[in-house]
Amino acid sequence: xxxxxxxxxxxxxxxRLPKLAEARANVSAAEADLAKAQRDLERTRIVAPxxxxxxxxxxxxxxxxxxxxxxxxxxxxxxxxxxxxVTDEQYALGNWPxxxxxxxxxxxxxxxxxxxxxxxxxxxxxxxxxxxxDDMTRLNxxxxxxxxxxxxxxxxxxxxxxxxxxxxxxxxxxxxxxxxILPRETLMTDGRVMIMDENDQLAFKTVGILRxxxxxxxxxxxxxxxxxxxxxxxxxxxxxxxxxxxxxSDDLDALPEAAVLISTDSSSQQQKSTDGSF
Length: 278
Hints:
Order of helices and strands: HEEEHEEEEEEEEEEEE
Structural class: mainly beta
Low-confidence stretches: 250-278
């Protein structure tokens, strides 16, 4: 200013005081932002709401992330849920959880899987049913819960059940009284069975089918104690046809809780109550 030969004091604009003040303000703001970031970092701790394991990792060291960025996915190890498809026929035989009903005894489930050539089993319990049918299969789904699937919490001698393992489930069903268990081949296509009446003649009875499997049927209506069920094939069966008992059938030795039948045929039938599983 003096070298220019100017007289008087220079103005603030000449001295660039506003620019200097702006720079100092920017430095102060940056220092404040740095202090805030350091405090946020000290206070930052990502904690899962449960004990678990990491499924995927989507962020790495040095990567910049913003709120809402997915860092990874985890899953709980204290319990695991297994979705089980149940047909309408099976659903009718179960005691399932109902909304707003407390203190119910829910069914127990036996889970089984083959891992590394070994058959392993786990115990689980039905905890809920899904409210809608599957759109594709039209099946009901029930959810079983297994405790400590990875055997990481407390004392447990069960093998670990890894997420994604395919299992087969046996669910405790409701007890049904006065049920007859017959070989599948004794049931005709029209829902009748052939019996030998008191005159040793052929007769037909329409029966109520509680459940039908590949090798047996569960009959809950239409039969009486002492009915003699015909197990052998008869060409062109006609009501009143005379029959002769050849032998007592041993076909049901492999069937637990089975009735005793006759082969063309006869013997006394045994009435049973069964505690269903499916």
